[in-house]
Write a sequence for this structure.
């Protein structure tokens, strides 16, 4: 890094938690800065062959005009060196607006969908689910060479032990997840190099398991040891309870499953005055792609009585929990790669909706092509990365769909991560049903 800071004025946020500035016309991505700040002392990283520079705020106290949303670091784990909360210097209102700008920028630049221009009539909401801190109900920890559980350092595999963090927890963690956890794990003999998964259910009951892997190739073996509790936790959404293993996928923020289920219900409400309302008879079926435990499949059947839902995902503990929780509903769990299973899904009577909740890399192009070909009345896309969500949206729009509403969700307070809920509806005379690059 250079020794002498340069003073820069910040523009808008960049995807990834940095802020954009310019130096002699060159773009600089600055860590630790916030949009709109001016007179920011920045220590530049050494130049590379790339067309932009990067840098770090040198002294927060020396910023001439700090953002009104700037706060002291909120996560003791980050102060101790862990990389879990890379945006803990902004309050809830500032975080939500920052992420809203990032999403709109990514959709405009990558998806060529301008919600401030040609799509200005499409409602765009931004939601910060409560609570902003203390929201996380599950965490994966590493175990260092001394057998201590902890969080990984930023951009490193090194571990910051919980016992070295003031309070022994991250500010992201819910009180029921955090209270006494450091001491509880310190009292257990852990395997160096293992992972420890900890989760707390809606009833406040916490459990932890250790996961180990030995060997390589065909001799690779995995082990699971319950450290505390039963190895499972229970979550309840809209009256349905799922009992899932601690290490199984479940939404990290305690309020998100109900929030997203409500969004699905609102999107499918048969209200002729609602934005994006699709006239005509309802379809008889729906698909929940990358469906996991089937929370969204349940939301679909709640939203449209009599709807038959196929939920597709690779076989996992979460899928098994969904089968048990939703037994008796017309929900069929189809195990396998989503890209290879769409031809086997129910579509007779027409498709009312398809829910897409792909991984951070976005949906496979062949999956998007199958969605367009199936021609549901509604597509409900849940994106956990704004760049790949924008790419997916562009392909769906090219296939004959139009955004009816978008919701930006700050589901990961204190971090740069953001989720995007996009409701698309089928249109006529727009596109030829082909998903393009």
């Amino acid at each position: 890094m250079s020794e002498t800071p340069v003073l820069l004025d910040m523009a808008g946020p960049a995807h990834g938690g940095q802020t954009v500035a310019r130096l002699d016309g060159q773009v600089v991505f600055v860590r630790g800065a916030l949009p709109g700040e001016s007179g920011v002392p920045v220590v530049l990283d050494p130049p590379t062959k790339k067309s932009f520079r990067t840098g770090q705020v040198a002294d927060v106290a020396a910023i001439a005009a700090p953002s009104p949303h700037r706060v002291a670091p909120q996560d003791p784990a980050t102060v101790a060196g862990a990389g879990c909360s890379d945006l803990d210097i902004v309050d809830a209102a500032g975080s939500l607006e920052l992420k809203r700008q990032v999403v709109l920028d990514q959709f405009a630049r990558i998806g060529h969908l301008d919600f401030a221009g040609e799509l200005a009539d499409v409602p765009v909401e931004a939601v910060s689910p409560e609570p902003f801190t203390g929201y996380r109900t599950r965490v994966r920890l590493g175990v260092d060479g001394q057998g201590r559980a902890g969080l990984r350092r930023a951009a490193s595999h090194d571990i910051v032990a919980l016992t070295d963090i003031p309070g022994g927890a991250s500010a992201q963690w819910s009180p029921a997840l955090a209270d006494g956890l450091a001491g509880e794990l310190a009292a257990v003999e852990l395997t160096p190099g293992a992972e420890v998964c900890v989760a707390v259910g809606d009833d406040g009951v916490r459990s932890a398991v250790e996961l180990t892997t030995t060997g390589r190739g065909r001799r690779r073996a995995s082990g699971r040891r319950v450290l505390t509790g039963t190895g499972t936790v229970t979550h309840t959404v809209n009256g349905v309870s799922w009992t899932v293993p601690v290490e199984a996928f479940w939404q990290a923020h305690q309020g998100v499953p109900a929030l997203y289920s409500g969004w699905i219900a609102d999107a499918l409400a048969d209200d002729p005055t609602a934005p994006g309302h699709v006239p005509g008879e309802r379809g008889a079926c729906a698909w929940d792609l990358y469906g996991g435990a089937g929370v969204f499949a349940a939301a679909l059947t709640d939203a449209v009585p009599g709807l038959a839902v196929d939920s597709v995902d690779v076989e996992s503990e979460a899928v098994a929990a969904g089968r048990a929780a939703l037994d008796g509903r017309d929900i069929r769990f189809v195990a396998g790669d989503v890209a290879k299973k769409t031809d086997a899904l129910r579509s007779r009577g027409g498709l009312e909706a398809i829910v897409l909740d792909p991984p951070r890399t976005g949906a496979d192009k062949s999956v998007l092509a199958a969605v367009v070909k199936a021609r549901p009345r509604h597509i409900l896309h849940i994106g956990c990365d704004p760049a790949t969500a924008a790419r997916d949206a562009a392909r769906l729009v090219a296939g004959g769909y139009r955004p009816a509403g978008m919701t930006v969700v700050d589901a990961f307070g204190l971090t740069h991560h953001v989720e995007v809920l996009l409701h698309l509806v089928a249109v006529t005379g727009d596109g030829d049903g082909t998903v393009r690059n």
